[in-house]
Amino acid sequence: MSEELKEGLDRRDFMIASIATVGASAVLAGNTGSAIAQDTAAGTAGGTVYTGDVIDGKKVVSTLDVNDLAPGQKHLLYFQGVQMPTGQHWHVSVTVARGANPGKRGVLTSGVHGDEMSSIHTVQTVMNQLDPAQMSGTVMAVTDVARPAIESMQRRWPNFGRGPDLVDTNRVWPGNENDITAPSRHAGLLFNRLLRPNADFAIDFHTGTTGFEVAAFNIAEMDIPEIKAMAELYPVGQIFDNPTYPNVLHNAFVAAGIPSFCPEIGAARHLDLEMISLFVEGTMNVLKHHGIVAGPMGRTGKDVSVFVGNSAFPILATAGGLVEHLVKLNDKVEAGQKVAIQRNSFGEVVAEYTSGVAGEITGQRSDAMSEPGNPLVFILFNKATQEGVETYPE
Questions:
Q1: Please, what sign has the CA dihedral across residues 362, 219, 231, 190?
Q2: pLDDT digits 0-9 by tens, 197-235
Q3: How far is Cα 228 from Cα 1, in angstroms, rounded to an integer?
Q4: Which of 326, 323, 308 is nearest to 376 (CA)?
Q5: Which end of the chain has the least Cβ crowding within 10 Å, N or C?
């Protein structure tokens, strides 16, 4: 691991320590045995653990070491996630392409938010292109991390442990197997027993949220050489050079010393096949970069005009009504430029919205109507001075 990567981790050490403190305080009295089990699982000291269950012909594991799987083959498994109130478990789908020859181990994740279909399809397409007999190394894919959210195609995990609640599963990583909420326990199980032990690098795929579409871009810390090298291998128009929140999945990987970043692939709840193809091409480039698959590189960031920004300027609705965008995704805008208007039920213009910065359009509300407070536009730009962790309205 490079000195630059270590420095990147140091910046959020205090945040990770805070998360660990919160998690530790949530351990219930009498749970000493399960806490010990968590410590053991974190290193997969005992190797792969099969539960003995078989679902749709696929074996179920509660801990996975990809080195235990036969080389030169593709393996389809279920991972046993968190328990439901009934005592049943949420299972997630795991595909492992174990190369015939040794090499790097890559982890591809999607479905951390339940409404993000293009991210799932991207990972499935990459895995379908892999021939383990011709590979050096291993690629593991988990396509439905937040199963309960995916079942209803909604962004957040419907959690009922302490009354009805919706939890953003991409704000709980690395999770805690003994926490008070199911999403955090689920994240802890996956991170400790499945994801972290099998990753030399990781890519966590996402899309915009329901009602909001985004351009094709990568979220990546460009001051970390290992991450920069991967992010630049995608033929997409934007890179958001910002760590975002400390407890999203790709940052949990980085905090664990595993280079990782986050591709964002258009709008939620549908498949954008044109945009998906860009991210499939870029991901295959990453696998070639790490020597897992052979062949010439496809298009990269050098073949498109990549705009790199370190901050996103949000424009929020101040009124209710129909929203009319005056610019498109990836358009360049100047400070003071009008980017959207809003009309009431009589067709009267009730609000006009202008950019406060010079940059590029990176996200737009796709739902035609909005109430006050909803994000209408995000503009990617470069802020001269970064001040701590930025938060964004959703």
A1: negative
A2: 999 999 999 999 999 999 999 999 999 999 999 999 999
A3: 14
A4: 323
A5: C
Distance of CA 158 to the CA centre of its chain: 19
Round to whole Å and give the CA distance between 304 and 281: 13
Residue 21 has pLDDT above 50, yes or no: no
Q: What is the DSSP letter of 302?
A: G
Beta strand 238-240 pairing with 216-219: parallel
Are the beta carbons of 234 and 141 closer than 8 angstroms? no
Structure tokens at 92: 């997630």
CA angle, 17 then 20 then 26, to 5°: 145
Q: Where are the beta strands (DSSP E) in 129-253?
A: 136-142, 157-159, 165-167, 201-204, 212-214, 216-219, 238-240
Pairing mode of beta strands 321-325, 369-370:
antiparallel
Report the helix count and the strand count for the chain, using DSSP H and E.
9, 22
Spatial CA neighbour of 142 closest among 220, 287, 249: 249
How many other CB atoms are found less than 10 A from the CB of residue 79? 23
* Backbone φ and ψ of 255, nearest 5°: -65, -25
Classify 386 in phi/psi space as left (phi over 0), alpha (psi -120 to 50) or beta: beta
pLDDT digits (tens, 9 = 90+) for 163-185: 788 999 999 999 999 999 999 99
Are 74 and 179 within 8 A, CB to CB? no
